[in-house]
Q: What sequence folds into this?
C-alpha cells in the first residue's frame, strides 16, 4: 500500500503544480481505499507499523487530521519503529496539501511540508 499512498502524493503534487496527468485515478478515492484496506488489516490483527504510517498519510490526504494523528501515534509507538524507520518515513514527504488553505500548528500537519515528506521506500526491499 505504500506505493499507492506515494501515488496519491505525487498526483496531488502534480495537480498543485499545474501538471495534467491522464490515466490516473482520483487521489481521494485511492486514499480512501488504502485507509479501508489498512482498517480491515488492523481489525484482523494483521496490520504492521508501515500500515499505520500509510493509514496516517491516507488520513492526511483526506483531511482527517484527528485520525491521522491517531494512526501516526500507533506507528510511532510500535515496538518495531526505531529512529531509522521514523526518519525514513518522516524525511521523504511530497508536501501534502490539505483540502483547505488552513495551516495546522503541528509541523506534521503543515500540509505544505518540504518536498519529499510522504514518499518512503519499500521497507522489505531495503537491505
A:
Amino acid at each position: 500500500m505504500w506505493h499507492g499512498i506515494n501515488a496519491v502524493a505525487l498526483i496531488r503534487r502534480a495537480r498543485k503544480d499545474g501538471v495534467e496527468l491522464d490515466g490516473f485515478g482520483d487521489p481521494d478515492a485511492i486514499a480512501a481505499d488504502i485507509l479501508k484496506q489498512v482498517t480491515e488489516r488492523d481489525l484482523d490483527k494483521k496490520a504492521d507499523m508501515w500500515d499505520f504510517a500509510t493509514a496516517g498519510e491516507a488520513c492526511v490526504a483526506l483531511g482527517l487530521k484527528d485520525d491521522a494523528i491517531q494512526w501516526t501515534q500507533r506507528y510511532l509507538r510500535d515496538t518495531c519503529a526505531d529512529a531509522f524507520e521514523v526518519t525514513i518515513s518522516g524525511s521523504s514527504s511530497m508536501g501534502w496539501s490539505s483540502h483547505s488553505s488552513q495551516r495546522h500548528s503541528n509541523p506534521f500537519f503543515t500540509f505544505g511540508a518540504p518536498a519529499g515528506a510522504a514518499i518512503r521506500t519499500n521497507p522489505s526491499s531495503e537491505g
